[in-house]
Amino acid sequence: MKYYFSKLIVVFSLFLLIGCKKNETQTVVKSDNPKNSIEYASGFSIVKYEGYSVVNVVNPWPNANEKFTYVLTENNTEIPDSLQKYTSIKVPLESVVVTSTTNIPFLEMLEVENKLVGFPHTDYISSEKTRALIDKGSVKNVGQNEKLNIEQLIELSPDLIVTFGVDNNNPMLNNLKKSGLKVLIQGDWMEQSPLGKAEWIKLYGALFGKEDKAKELFDKIVESYNQAKKLVNDKPATSKVLYGSMYEDVWYVAKGNSWVAQFMKDAKANYLWADLKGTGSEGLSFEKVLDKAKTANVWIASGSFKSLDELQKANPHYSQFDAFTNKTIYTFEGKFGATGGTVYYELAPSRPDLVLKDYIKIFHPDLLSSYEFTFASKLN
Asked: Percent of the chain having pLDDT more than 90?
């Protein structure tokens, strides 16, 4: 899965210009001082002009050699000649297909989940609200992200398909465009800042004409995140933390500039690989991990383990860690939707404040004694 997830503000003066026919084309000019409305995310920008917005996606996948520009137009606005070469998307959208579960919470938070008409492999969706739409037949299963059912998408004829790419070679994207379908590439999964990931809700605010609502929701998340950080401002980082687990013969630890490592830093924990430069993960041997983390007093295990017994059956050598002996092992991946979708993968990118609170409760349980975990589970 990809940890995937976006947004804007409608200018009131535009409405003063729309006193004529609804479908009348208007010519507009750029505002004098256009500003990017994105504060935390590094992978995209949104600049608002009179009657249209320009969205730039600058980091869609690792080592990307191209950027994407989209022009969101309102009320048949005529855009400047300099922008004609870019994909134009009429907003607000009336129907959409998204391809990452991280997009689902954004739609629900903005109360536009009923605009969703298709999703690849719908079993991955864990939200009860969107699952109800799937069960009702309102949201169609449109294949897999790398192998979308183009014929079905043409039949659905969504206003827009929001998808992602993993590298510079993705023929599916070209096939979608050749079929006349509007496609927007987003890169929320590339963000390493917790608040940067969540800020992609502003993209969906821009797409659905709910810029103000998106900003309001995001600002509350920022406030909640910062309030949680303040709880540990004066706390020492006493928890020595091991992260990850074995996958086949490799143990993948989160690098020091990764999304995961940032949460541990903000929660005031001593993450043992915090000085490992880079984002994403690093593959290590079991022996190297054991040598460094045998005495770690907290272990955040990757994987959907439900008990210490299940963890040990996966690899008997896990019992060599002190955290196993002391029963201080947690996972964030143990909660699922009705059809098997992982709640953490879907919701965590859009609610970093809740992820941070989970980490704080693990490392400083006295601070959030009445708070119940949203994602984390302790293995017993």
From this structure: 84
